[in-house]
Description:
Elements (H helix, E strand, L loop, with lengths): L2 H19 L5 H14 L4 E6 L2 E3 L2 E3 L4 E6 L3 E6 L6 H14 L3 E6 L9 E5 L5
Parallel strand pairs: 5-6
Antiparallel strand pairs: 1-4, 2-3, 4-5, 6-7
Amino acid sequence: MNVNDVSGQIIDSAMKVHTVLGPGLLESAYEACLLFELHRRGLEARSQVPLPIQYDSVKLDVGYQLDLLVEDLVVVEIKAANELTPLYEAQLLSYHKLSGKQVGLLINFHSVRLKDGIKRLVNNYSE
């Protein structure tokens, strides 16, 4: 499966979760349901993946975690906020850099229409 197919499956799964649950819940509820939906579709997805930082010649565990990592290709950052801000985008781009992954999805489940709450970010990506 290529990264675009994986991204499409994640977005489709998120749309299903949002249709069933709607906005207003905690991030943890959306994360658990999205993880379940991705597994149901046969995708390899892990939640709360530790993300150490590399500083000088040492890796340091400072508590960062990816909300979801799907097919070891796409980082998913889940939000339940009033709106997506540039800070959330910067956070996801930092996760790109730390994880070495090039594609990420920022999904805000508190959007009335979920398509308005999804941002796909690419960092140094080429097919």
